[in-house]
């Protein structure tokens, strides 16, 4: 999932939005404009467009509130949170470890929709007061502030309702998983079952939505597009959620030195940048670990070289531009599940360092093979259990 846009940090947690979220905003703006035209033609196109544009901050506030509630709930249970990604319907809070028990999973899944319900009701009440006496249906008389706060209330209630659909990794799906987990005692099986249910629900939504688009008129078409869009999202989120879970499950408790290569290539410190660039251009564009004897000096890639003027390449050594950061190496005893983040989108190999010396190299294909083997082993076990 490299398709996210980083927004910033809140309470030490990285906040990002997925591209699907931008699709949701466009759809919400269009819905508001279409429905608004019907309910309040007196507002005029300019104010309706303004109202449509207000969909983005309202959705953002509702979803961010939802994810923040998850994050704080997880943290209260002692599970560190590193990133919130806002998706179409909510988000996925990347927690660093799988949930500890069905009970803590259920609590963390229930807290966030509850926060949205409370916020939604409060917003609708305030909007009702602002609109002086429940004239909210009459958008033209209520005024834009009341309409915006009302829309914020609706966005919160919709976020709560959609997240309670039994579709993993959304909250309803996590509740389902917690229930199956409690019943079977097997978190992997519980995750797989809830992912299956989610995919079935998602595709059913797509079928109904597409049917509506063709069969209905006017506002019905808008509803159809929403239903199909939500269904598509549910189906793909379930598949991704299960895949992500499998990776975590396969790697948790596995030390780095079990998967690292002990025979590997490294670049001696005195090699010039020009030589390294030649290798990058001719063969590979991956990063290299730079060593002085066995001592690890850092990582160097085309990215660092490209910051230098080409004239100085022949006289500069790779050791001068090698980057050394905790996020760019691992220790032999580190848990693979924690290291995965570092082996993310950017780097495909990670130097393993012990006592300042380079002792191994963790390569992405090796990790992928390990996860695939684990997944195959799990499904073989399940086949045997069923026959
Ligand atoms: Zn949620």
Tell me the layout of helices and strands.
Elements: E1 4-10, E2 13-18, H1 19-39, H2 44-53, H3 55-76, E3 81-86, E4 91-95, H4 102-130, H5 139-142, H6 144-163, H7 171-184, H8 187-215, H9 219-251, H10 256-259, E5 267-268, H11 273-282, E6 288-292, E7 295-300, H12 302-305, H13 318-321, H14 336-339, E8 349-354, E9 357-363, H15 364-386
List keywords for this structure.
387 residues, alpha/beta, CBS-domain, 2 domains, 4-stranded mixed sheet, 3-stranded mixed sheet, 15 helices, 9 strands, 13% strand, globular, binds zinc ion
Provide an overview of this structure.
- Helix 4 runs antiparallel to helix 6 (144-163).
- The protein contains 15 helices and nine strands.
- Strands 1-2-3-4 form a four-stranded mixed beta sheet. A three-stranded mixed beta sheet has the order 5-6-7.
- It has two domains: 4-251, no CATH class; 256-371, CBS-domain (Roll), CATH 3.10.580.10.
- 60% of the residues lie in helices and 13% in strands.
- Strand 3 (81-86) and strand 4 form a beta hairpin.
- It is α/β, with parallel strands linked by helices and 387 residues long.
- The structure holds zinc ion.
- Residues 66, 70, 90, 112, 163, 170-171 line the site of zinc ion (ZN).
- The chain-level mean pLDDT equals 79
Rg for CA atoms: 26 Å
Overall tally of domains: 2
What's the helix count? 15
- Structural class, by secondary structure, is alpha/beta
Write out the distinct hetero groups bound to the structure: zinc ion
- List low-confidence stretches: none
Placed side by side, the strands forming the largest sheet appear as 1-2-3-4
End-to-end separation in angstroms reads 36 Å
Number of beta strands: 9
Q: In sequence order, what are the helices and strands, one letter per element?
A: EEHHHEEHHHHHHHEHEEHHHEEH
Silhouette: globular
- Fraction of residues in β-strands: 5-15%
> What's the story with the biggest beta sheet?
4 strands, mixed
Quaternary structure annotation: single chain
**Helix proportion of residues, in percent?**
55-70%
